[in-house]
Amino acid sequence: MAEQLWKGRFSKAVDSRVNDFNSSIRFDQRMIAQDMRGSGVHAAMLAKQGIISEKDCEDILSGLASIADDLASGALTIDPNAEDVHTFVEQTLTARIGDAGKRLHTGRSRNDQVALDIRLTLRLSLIHISEPTRRTPISYAVFCLKKKKTT
Questions:
Q1: Quick check: 43 and 60 in contact, CB under 8 A?
Q2: pLDDT, tens digit, 9 for 90 and up, residues 9-33
Q3: Contact yes or no for 23/84 (Cβ under 8 A)
Q4: Taking a C-beta distance cutoff of 8 angstroms, is the pair 78, 24 a contact?
């Protein structure tokens, strides 16, 4: 089971219904590609600003790429017990590359991550939705021109 971020705040085991209520992995797992893309760009910015080392950045980027490859090949599946996609990525990354994975979210809140993931997901969805409709006005105009020529 994935480690909960807030587990140290309680002395007793937390009821599974609380975990179910707090978990968003069922919903946000569809944004894992966007989350890793945003994390990669964030790591590059941290390195460029001198906040993390170039080595940490390289490790983070290669770790994110290996997670993406393993997810695509089926060698890795998203843990349904993870609290959210951000926690899953960070914990998987840290298990693979060590402490550099913990530095990935320096200067970036989970709210920042959620906002970026949603924007990137919506952007991609809008591109897919709008692709067929972009040709419709042109097709209609061509139809009208052809119709005008025949009358």
A1: yes
A2: 656 776 666 566 566 777 787 889 9
A3: yes
A4: no
